[in-house]
Predict the structure.
Amino acid sequence: MRDLAREFATARGTVDAAFAMLAREGYVASRGPAGTIVSPELNTAAATVPGDRPNASRARPQARAEPKHLQLGLPALDLFPRKAWANIVAREARRISSAEMTYPDPAGLQPLRQEVAAYLASSRGIACQWQQIVITSGFQDGLDLALRVLLRRNDRAWIEDPYFPPVRAALDMAGARLIPVRADADGMRVTDGIRQAPKARIVVVTPSHQSPLGAALSLPRRLALLGWANTADAYVIEDDYDSEFRFVGRPLPALKSLDREQRVIYAGSFSKTLFPGLRLGYLVLPDQLLGQFVEASATRTAGHGLFEQRVVAAFMAEGQFARHLKRMRKLYAARRAALVDALEAEFGEQITIALKPGGMHLVVQFTGGVRDVALAELAKAAGFGAEALSARTITHQSVEALLIGFTNVAEPDAPAVARRLRHELQPGLKTRPGRLTLRCG
């Protein structure tokens, strides 16, 4: 102790007190004349700083992967109006008041709800009051909220087959009994659903653009679905995920626009129209459900970030949102055409292309016994975001097809992307001549 005190130029009593403290806390143990040693009972592995472990990953943020070519569900992030957005962000940051820094309304910011109501009235044919709108953290959050309010464990729920994977995951987590209802060229086969589960509680459907096939739910089936929901006291959750991007004529009216009996919960988000990292969406609710949803939202999240809502509300109020959508419709039509032309040039007579009115992805169907799962694995290994259609089916047999997005493939890049895709898929293609059909979804 005397030597330590001399080495650190401190009093011997201070050193004695320090060692006594270490002993009390179990770091050192006295061995009498043999001196004081580090306690053998210490777990040295646990005491090691995680970042100093030879095999431990350093404590630094993980870099997010860049968008992949042909990835589904991503808007054209390269052409987002960043300057206009940044100007609004800076302005709204200067304007924020102390009152707006408190806990938010769990139903969402009133100006944003008003802008959403006005937008839905003009673009989707939905006549609703702004008070019927509840802001969410995107579609998935809105779906989880709806299932929390309406669904009890083991309740039956119709799901489209093929389906959108996050929908199935949410229903599974909620404990629903899934009723896969086949989708065809006219959308979900409603009569099949009624036959399979006439007393189902929930239906989740993509009527404007079936995910992933791309078909629109026909008017007779829409009316049949609404009529059944009213009779069965069931609710329909309408996922309107990319209806803005229709390249022939105006976007189809939403199913909600036909809802006279208040059985449809309309779910929209800004993930496709702006960018998914924003994490903002909305529900349009029947009047009789509004109180339950607001209460459930308050207990789940105590509301959503006000600043992001302020920015989006201003973006919409100033006309930036409408201009952005108009520009993206034109851009996506051009990018789709460029990728289709490139695929035709690369695959030659092996492909035929049947363009649908809109959407953000293509359905590429292969014939000749080619397995889409194997092709999707080859594409994924090469850094593409293509997915297998058969992996999205539950009970009904599906064609073998690849789902590929075109929105993030710039027109000049399309030939190189198509050429590389052909090269990477070659090991999975049959040697005998095959035919390939592309359907836009």
Q: What stands out?
A: The chain has three domains: 2-52, 79-322, 332-440. The first strand starts at residue 28 and ends at 30. The chain has a mean pLDDT of 87.
